[in-house]
Amino acid sequence: MTQSIVRLNPPTLPNAGDMGYSQISIVTPGRMAYISGQVAWRADGQPVPAGLAEQMQLVALNAKAALDAVGATPHDVVLARVYLVNLTPERMEELMPPFLATFEGAQPCVTGIGVAALAAPDLQVELELVVRLPD
């Protein structure tokens, strides 16, 4: 079986691999899934956690549930977009460990976007995924 996603960090670009993601992902032809932004909402309606790291952990669980629903794993993620309210270096430092843990060692392309607000005032982080579905 051929590898469905090839990850690259060419020497002409900063080595994103050291930070836990890839500069480039090359995808072989196949079916794709586009997973809407996942936030720290729970299916049972429990309150949103107050802390950023705790929210990211819940966002990761929701993202993995969406991946499960389409028969994919974190290793099938081509691109992850993370939206962060009040993006600062300190908040990124707090976010990154649970964010990177979401991908279980895979290093998809990542775009971080600072935003003024998300869908509700208590939400701090949202994760959108582009996924190459396994054959």
Automatic annotation (TrEMBL):
<dbReference type="Pfam" id="PF01042">
    <property type="entry name" value="Ribonuc_L-PSP"/>
</dbReference>
<dbReference type="InterPro" id="IPR035959">
    <property type="entry name" value="RutC-like_sf"/>
</dbReference>
<comment type="similarity">
    <text>Belongs to the RutC family.</text>
</comment>
<protein>
    <submittedName>
        <fullName>RidA family protein</fullName>
    </submittedName>
</protein>
<dbReference type="InterPro" id="IPR006175">
    <property type="entry name" value="YjgF/YER057c/UK114"/>
</dbReference>
